[in-house]
From TrEMBL:
Name listed for the protein in its UniProt record: Pentatricopeptide repeat-containing protein
Species this chain originates from: Zostera marina
Keywords, sorted A to Z: Repeat
Phylogenetic classification of the source organism: Eukaryota, Viridiplantae, Streptophyta, Embryophyta, Tracheophyta
Record GO biological process: plant organ development; RNA modification
Keyword Repeat set for record: yes
Family annotation (InterPro entries): E_motif, PPR_At4g14850-like_plant, PPR_rpt, TPR-like_helical_dom_sf
Gene3D superfamilies: Tetratricopeptide repeat domain (1.25.40.10)
Length: 543
C-alpha cells in the first residue's frame, strides 16, 4: 500500500469511527510499527480509554516500557484495566519498584492487579514481598495460588511451595479452590526440586482424575519429577503413553533425565527415537543435552553426527549448543575441533570460556588454556570457581608450577570467588607432581577450612607414592586422615602401596594386620582418589 492510499484510508477511518482506528493501531503495534501507531494515535480526535489502553499495552508488548509509562501518565482518565496493564508490563520488564509504586496508588485494585504484582515480585526475586502481598489478599483465586506456588519454587523455596499447595487444598480453608493444570504443573516442578516422589505420585493420581493428564505442561512436569527421583522407567513410560501429546519439551526432559542419571547411551537412543518416529524437531535444549551425553560416552562418531544435524537446523553457532559441542569434542580428545567450534561461536559466555579452558587442560594443552584465559580477561569477563579450577588443572597436567602458584594466590584473594576443596586438591596435585611435597603439606595446614579435610590429605598421600624419601610425610598425612576418619580404607591402601613400592615389606605387613583388625578390605581404584576429584568436579560443573 503506497502513502497516498494509506492517507486515504486514515482519512476514511477518521470519518468513520474510533473503533476502526483503534483496530488499525493494534495492527501497527502487532507488527511492531510503533512510530506509525503513535502517529495515528496522535491524530485521533476522539481517544477514549480503550484506545489509550491499546496503545499502552502495545508499547509494553514491544518492550517500550518508558514510552508506555509516559503515555499512562498523560491519560485524561484511567480505569482498572489501565492500571493493571501498566503494573503488569512494568513488573515483567524488571521495573518492579515503579510497578509497586503504581500498584500502591491504584484507587481500586481487582484480582488481576494483585496477581500481576505478586508475579512481578516473584519474577524479580522478591519472594518475601510476594508472600506478604498474597497474605493481604482478601480472597485469592486459583491464579493467585498458582502464582505464589510457582514463585516460591522458582526462588528455591520448593518445600514452602508444597506447604502452600497443602494449604490451598485443605478442607479447612475458608475458600475452596480447585487446582488447574497450571497449579499441578507448578506443584510437580516443586516435587521434582525436592525429589518428593511420594507426593509427586499422589499429584499424578489427582491429575489423572481431574483430566489434566493430557496437558502438555503437566506431562513435561511429570517426566521431570520422575527423572529427578531417578525413576527413568516411569519417566520414559509417561512419554510413550502420551506420545501423541508429547512435545519437544517432554522429549528433551527424558533425554536430559537419562543424561543426568548417567545413562548416556539411553539418552542418545531417545534422541534418535524422537527424530525417527515423530515430526518433532529438536531445539536448543535437546541438542545441548544430547551432545553432553555424547561427551559422557566419549563417542566422537555419534557426537559429530549430531553436530551435523544441529548445523542443518541452524544451531551450529548457538552459544548453548556450542558449549556442549566444545565439551563433547574435548571429552572425546578432539581438542582441535573443540577450538574450532569455540572460534565460530556467534557469542561467548563464561561457560564457553570455562569449557574450552578446561578442555585444553585435560588434553595436555596447558599453555593454550593460559592463553585463552588472557583472552577472556580482555573481554572483561570475571573468572569464577570453574575458571580457576580449569587453570589449576592445566598447570597440573603441564607441570606449570609457578603459574599454578600465581593462580592459587589470585584465587585466594578474589572476593567474588569461594575457595573450594577441589581447588586445594588440584594445587596439592601440582605441587606433588613437581616434588614440592612439604609445600603441599604446609598449604593444607595453613588453609583453615581444609586442614581436617580427608580427601585433600588423601591427595597428598597419593602424591607421596612417587618419592622414596616421602614415607615420613606419607605417615604424617595418614595420621591426619586417621584423626578424622580412623577406618579410612583408602588411606590404609595408599600407605600400604607406598611401602610396597619401596620394598618396605615389614611395614606393608603391619598395615595389612591393622586393616584386618579393623575389618577393612581394599577398595579397587581408591589409590587414584586424589587425581580424579578435580577433573570430576570440572566436568560436572560445566554440565
Amino acid at each position: 500500500m503506497n502513502d497516498a492510499m494509506m492517507n486515504n484510508l486514515i482519512a476514511y477511518l477518521f470519518m468513520s469511527n474510533k473503533f476502526q482506528c483503534t483496530k488499525l493501531i493494534n495492527g501497527y503495534l502487532g507488527g511492531r510499527r510503533i512510530a506509525d501507531a503513535l502517529h495515528l494515535f496522535a491524530r485521533m480526535s476522539d481517544r477514549d480509554v480503550v484506545s489509550w489502553n491499546s496503545m499502552i499495552a502495545g508499547c509494553l508488548g514491544c518492550g517500550e516500557t518508558r514510552l508506555a509509562h509516559n503515555l499512562f501518565s498523560k491519560m485524561p482518565e484511567r480505569n482498572v484495566i489501565s492500571w493493571t496493564t501498566v503494573v503488569d508490563g512494568l513488573s515483567k520488564s524488571g521495573r518492579v519498584d515503579l510497578a509497586e509504586d503504581l500498584f500502591l496508588r491504584m484507587p481500586c485494585k481487582d484480582q488481576a492487579a494483585w496477581n500481576s504484582m505478586i508475579s512481578g515480585y516473584c519474577s524479580n526475586g522478591r519472594i518475601d514481598q510476594a508472600v506478604g502481598l498474597f497474605r493481604r489478599m482478601s480472597c485469592p483465586n486459583v491464579i493467585s495460588w498458582s502464582a505464589i506456588i510457582a514463585g516460591l519454587d522458582q526462588n528455591d523455596r520448593s518445600q514452602q511451595a508444597l506447604s502452600m499447595f497443602g494449604e490451598m487444598i485443605s478442607t479447612h480453608h475458608p475458600h475452596l479452590i480447585q487446582p488447574t493444570s497450571d497449579t499441578f504443573s507448578s506443584v510437580l516442578t516443586a516435587c521434582a526440586s525436592c525429589a518428593d516422589l511420594l507426593l509427586g505420585i499422589q499429584i499424578h493420581g489427582r491429575l489423572t482424575k481431574s483430566g489434566y493428564i493430557s496437558d502438555a505442561f503437566a506431562l513435561t512436569s511429570l517426566i521431570t519429577l520422575y527423572t529427578n527421583c531417578k525413576q527413568m522407567v516411569s519417566s520414559y513410560k509417561m512419554l510413550r503413553e502420551d506420545a501423541s501429546r508429547s512435545t519437544v519439551a517432554s522429549w528433551t526432559a527424558v533425554i536430559t533425565g537419562y543424561g543426568s542419571n548417567g545413562e548416556h547411551r539411553a539418552a542418545v537412543e531417545v534422541f534418535h527415537e524422537m527424530r525417527n518416529t515423530t515430526c518433532i524437531l529438536p531445539n536448543q535444549s535437546t541438542f545441548t543435552s544430547t551432545l553432553k551425553s555424547c561427551g559422557g560416552l566419549e563417542d566422537l562418531f555419534e557426537g559429530t553426527s549430531i553436530h551435523g544435524e544441529a548445523v542443518k537446523l541452524g544451531f551450529g553457532t548457538d552459544v548453548f549448543v556450542g558449549n556442549s559441542l566444545i565439551f563433547m569434542y574435548s571429552k572425546c580428545g578432539d581438542i582441535e575441533n573443540a577450538l574450532k567450534v569455540f572460534e565460530e561461536l556467534s557469542e561467548r559466555n563464561l561457560v564457553s570460556w570455562n569449557t574450552i579452558i578446561t578442555g585444553c587442560a585435560h588434553n595436555s594443552r596447558g599453555l593454550k588454556s593460559l592463553a585463552l584465559y588472557k583472552d577472556m580477561i580482555l573481554t572483561l569477563l570475571q573468572p569464577d570457581e570453574i575458571t580457576y579450577l580449569g587453570l589449576l588443572t592445566a598447570c597440573s597436567h603441564s607441570k606449570l608450577v609457578e603459574n599454578a602458584r600465581y593462580f592459587y594466590r589470585l584465587l585466594s584473594r578474589d572476593a567474588n570467588v569461594c575457595l573450594r576443596r577441589e581447588h586445594c586438591i588440584c594445587m596439592v596435585d601440582v605441587l606433588c607432581r613437581s616434588g614440592n611435597l612439604e609445600e603441599a603439606e604446609k598449604l593444607i595446614i595453613n588453609t583453615e577450612e581444609f586442614k581436617a579435610d580427608v580427601p585433600i590429605w588423601l591427595s597428598l598421600l597419593s602424591g607421596c607414592r612417587m618419592y622414596s624419601n616421602a614415607t615420613d610425610l606419607a605417615m604424617r598425612a595418614a595420621d591426619h586422615i586417621f584423626d578424622v576418619e580412623p577406618d579410612c580404607s583408602a588411606a590404609y591402601v595408599l600407605l600400604s602401596n607406598i611401602y610396597a613400592s619401596f620394598g618396605r615389606w615389614d611395614d606393608v605387613a603391619q598395615i595389612r594386620i591393622m586393616m584386618k583388625t579393623s575389618g577393612l578390605s581394599k577398595i579397587p581404584g581408591c589409590s587414584e582418589i586424589g587425581r580424579t576429584n578435580s577433573s570430576a568436579m570440572s566436568i560436572s560443573a560445566m554440565s
